[in-house]
Amino acid sequence: MFELLKKSGGILGMNARNLEYVRPLNRRQAREIADNKLLAKRVLKKNDLPVPGLIAKIRTEEDLESFDWSTLPGSFALKPNRGFGGEGIVVVYGRKKGRDDAWVKANGSVITVDDLRAHIRNILDGSFSLTNTPDIAFFEERLKLLKLFKPYAYKGIPDIRVIVFNGIPIMAMLRLPTRQSDGKANLQQGAIGVGLDLATGTTTTAVLGKSHIIEHIPRTRLVLSGLKLPYWNEILRIAVESQRISGLGFLGADIALDRDRGPVILELNARPGLSIQVANLSGLKTRLNRVKGLKVRTTERGILLGKHLFGGEIEEEIEELSGRRVIGSTEKVKLIGKDGKEIEIEAKIDTGADSTSIDTALARELGFGDALSTFESRLGGQDVMKELSKEERQKLFSGIPDLADTVPVKSSHGTSYRPMVRIEFVMDTVTVPAKVSVIDRSGLEYPVIIGRKSLRKFLVDVNK
Amino acid sequence: MEYHPFIQFAAGEGVPMQTIALLLMLPLVATLVAFFRQVVGIKAFGIYTPSIVTFAFVAFDPKGFKYGIGIFLAVIFVGMVSRYILKPFRLLYLPRVAITLSLISFVMFAILIFGGYFQRTGLAAVSIFPLLIMITLAEKFVAVQIEKGNRVALLLAGETLVISLVGYALVSSSAVTLTMLVYPWLVLLAIPVNIMLGKWTGLRLVEYVRFYKILSKK
């Protein structure tokens, strides 16, 4: 029990969330933006952040009486301005055939103007508002489901919850509506929460409702992990920006992906739920503590920090399984040349090349200047070299210090010979000894390309 | 053992002994509810409802457990049933609650008559106020039911019942009552204890269960 109590440090509980984060960091003025959806919409829009379009507002009973129902489009979402936890939201998908006073809901049931009127009265009375005080109802444009999500989401639109603290995205989760949740994406109502790898926006573990871990969508064989979300950088960007604009120090931003518009901000939460920890199998408190007090000057910096500090779970898992390091299509490498000379440089990973090659100037800097000069001086013209047998060639270049080998390079001008030297390089903490060819790459973007022979200890992820 | 001079003074001035005892118990019960929320993680219907239901149970003494639980369950049951009856009418909130309260009143009436018929006069003899308190419990129940659905409403009702029963056991225990009457200053402890509870940032007991998967990882 004591052991367990000690481990609690990593998890953010309700008490700590309220006392240490929500109360001191989300001041009243900022909370007002989160609790008042119309205000949030206005403020975010003014700052050029994408939000769903507003169709109409109904503030009073008179507004309701004089409302022209024929102005409503075929599909829309009706929301209480101060609702919370997804309560009181009605979404319709199209007009009932042959009627202009009735629409069809997610579950196929029909909702008429009279039903909507009764629902709006309940909203105006404050039945769904946080404090049961009179509220405003509004119609919002319905977002269109991304094709990618079609098999995963039951009816409604999935959304992405990003927890932002101190200008840094620290945890994220994809929320999928289910039959139980009636097409809504709130975990409290039975939606599925799927953890997201912050570095790539790829799904990891999933939780149904508040704490039940699952692998598939219930009653299907659809695996929930490994789905890569599009627009990941943009999602993180608008989440972090919305924190800056709203002034909410501890923010849960809800972002949906629209088929036509891409990421749009649905809602800002001043009291984000704690189940995101179960979906990510990771505690928020550890992460909050790690970024507390960091000075984050720009949005880009915050995103980078979040990705580096808290992302890469999937990668780690792959690395653990395969015993290899996952690298991107370009990587920083440290070249170690003669007498321990070191140079750090960006290299291109090229699985199409057999061996690794470096630029001539670079080889000189690494201490192979003499070897290269001697090599060039002994090298004859193309026609001369062509005549020589393998043995004769070896004899020609033998005795040059530091020259490891020579390699024929074929090009449109015929075959030329290049020198090879032995170096070591360090990439992603792994030290690799390599025989590299020295070629003039001065006109090319990367002075170093790493080829297959040097990549045995790595896996290449082109998304990275 | 003698009552504390302050209690004797108050009693001498004509304050009924039961009133004194209950007033001293209220901070205790309220602290208990706060403890259940912050440390255990049981929510119930806020702080007012479980406290007042506790005292309603006390008022049913000496058969607080039996009648208390019985009437509590009856109220919740009627609240559930009335939701299904009233659903097709699509009523606004307050009229809907008013109808539910009326239905509960009728059922209470029936229970009392029924009790009288079977010579269970103990119930019929109970003062009306604890009954009314229990009936108003329905408002809380219906409010949660509309906003969060049946499941949550039932869960919170269950939690309220548990806290009220623990509170009832505490308040009706003669040892506890006697202690409070002999050492009434003990009641002041409620303030530091609640300050501690109010600053408590550890995980709640139910959160250990909820986050078990993360805690047991590695």
List the helices and strands and how they pair.
The complex is a heterodimer of chains A (464) and B (218).
Chain A lengths: L1 H6 L6 H12 L2 H8 L1 H10 L7 E5 L2 H5 L10 E5 L9 E6 L6 E4 L4 E3 H13 L11 E5 L17 E7 L2 E9 L15 E6 L4 E7 L3 E3 L17 H15 L3 E9 L3 E8 L6 H5 L3 H8 L7 H12 L2 H10 L2 E3 L2 E7 L5 E8 L7 E3 H19 L3 H6 L2 H8 L5 E9 L2 E14 L2 E10 L8 E3 L7 E3 L4
Parallel strand pairs in A: 14-22, 16-21, 17-20
Antiparallel strand pairs in A: 1-6, 2-3, 2-6, 3-4, 4-5, 7-8, 7-12, 8-9, 9-10, 10-11, 12-13, 15-16, 15-19, 17-21, 18-19, 19-20
Chain B lengths: L4 H8 L4 H24 L7 H12 L4 H23 L6 H25 L3 H4 L3 H45 L1 H9 L7 H9 L6 H6 L1 H4 L3
Helix pairs in contact in B: 2-3, 2-7, 2-9, 3-4, 3-7, 4-5, 4-7, 5-7
Labels describing this entry:
heterodimer, A: 464 residues, alpha+beta, Cathepsin D, subunit A, domain 1, 3 domains, 22 strands, elongated, B: 218 residues, mainly alpha, flat
Describe this structure in words.
The complex is a heterodimer of chains A (464) and B (218). Chain A has 464 residues and is an alpha+beta fold. Chain A folds into three domains: 9-52 and 143-322, 2-Layer Sandwich (D-amino Acid Aminotransferase, Chain A, domain 1); 53-142, no CATH class; 325-460, Acid Proteases (Cathepsin D, subunit A, domain 1, Beta Barrel). Chain A has 14 helices and 22 strands. Chain A has helices spanning 2-7, 14-25, 28-35, 37-46, 61-65, 113-125, 232-246, 276-280, 284-291, 299-310, 313-322, 360-378, 382-387, 390-397, and strands spanning 54-58, 76-80, 90-95, 102-105, 110-112, 137-141, 159-165, 168-176, 192-197, 202-208, 212-214, 250-258, 262-269, 325-327, 330-336, 342-349, 357-359, 403-411, 414-427, 430-439, 448-450, 458-460. In chain A, the strands form four sheets. In chain A, strands 11-10-9-8-7-12-13 form a seven-stranded antiparallel beta sheet, with helices on both faces. The model of chain A has no long low-confidence stretch (mean pLDDT 86). Chain B has 218 residues and is mainly α. Chain B has one domain. Helices cover 78% and strands 0% of the residues of chain B. Chain B is built from eleven helices and no strands. Chain B has helices spanning 5-12, 17-40, 48-59, 64-86, 93-117, 121-124, 128-172, 174-182, 190-198, 205-210, 212-215. The longest helix of chain B is centred in the last third of the chain and has 45 residues, at 128-172. In chain B, 30% of the residues are buried. The model of chain B has no long low-confidence stretch (mean pLDDT 88).
